[in-house]
Give the backbone structure.
Amino acid sequence: MAKQRPSLSPAYILGVGLTKFAKPLARNAADYTELGFEAGIKALLDAGINYDDVDQGIACYCYGDSTSGQRVFYQFGMTQAPVVNVNNNCATGSTGLWMAREKVGCGAADVVMVVGWEKMARGSLGRTFKDREDPVGRTVDMMKETRGLTDAPGPYGATAEDFAEIARINHAHSARNPYSQFRTPYTLSQILSSPTLHHPLTKLQCCPTSDGGAAAIVVSEAFLTAHPDLRPRAILIAGQHLATDSPTLYDGSAISLMGYTMSALAARHALAEAGVSPLDIPVCELHDCFSANEMITLDALGLCPRGKAHEMVRAGDITYGGRCVVNPSGGLISKGHPLGATGIAQAAELVWQLRGCAGERGVPGGVSVALQHNLGLGGAAVVTVYKRADGGSSADAVPVPQGAEEEEEGGVGYNPAVEARGFTRAQVERVRSRKWASEWALGDTQRKVEARF
């Protein structure tokens, strides 16, 4: 068991940035240097800081060579700050956020910048190194042994229609998200009649592979105290826990194989630290790589009684007008799933929800707390609870100033929650290092990014 750690000092997400998520190998596909640069510049602008303020960097990606993080971060400035490269499968981005919070909470840094990206291949995920043991090989073997590769019965009486309804809702939510890979809503019939991959899952119930980037700036209470004008932007990381698997992973249950136990443990710890109940959660971004995973996770997070997730779906309690809006971004199923960026993109959506700037994706009546779940088989589960720094609700929030693009104030010059736009050269110069910028390190990245805008 992990050692019980002492209480951490408060840590906040001060700024976030996203690229659009896109189909891999598209004609105008961006390289990882561009994805990281675009997301990072947007996060610095949103936070209202300069890269010289950053004490440490965390780079999150699964597919790429070692030190790709340094290649991305050097574009902001070569300040000689530590940069750590993280790979934790699909939980990579939220693992980076967890590391940032630990560093800030323990006093090792006041400002940590987390940048995640993925540049993926088309089609299903495959192994990269085939000359050695597969890290999830024992999990796959257990699946073959107990369930086969296509026999996936619904838990506790869930039907094919219940799984399809989850996908229908996510696709409907995604239509409102300008960063989503897919923005087309579908009827339940269309989802059920799309090609079957593994019964009961059809193609429209499965997340795609994606190219994309996301970034976040995590800061300390001391930093906010020294910069009181930035506090209205800040969102408190009120509770957080990273868990790995227990022996129940191999108990023969298909639910256990999908990380149920570690998700449930991470949720209990994060919610307890934040002092909230699952029933207090009005909005949640969770790891819906497949509709079946969302069904399992609703249960694991405590958003419904054990075995009643399908009833929550049938009651309309995972969308607007229901008890908890789940995946207002569209989730992995429709927004997309660039592995290293996913967890940070989930956090960005919840930051915007708590700031009250999510536009038509915003939860009616406002929110004061939000829940995030990000899962990586192999395994890692990160659950995070966010609150507004002022303890209030997004319904009473004063809009975060974003300034005009030509102004010197912080911000990107528009509402990034509802517009997937770019930035100007003047804005880039405002947030890149003033002392240690290298044009050689930047190369032609900025020009390529600008060309896509």
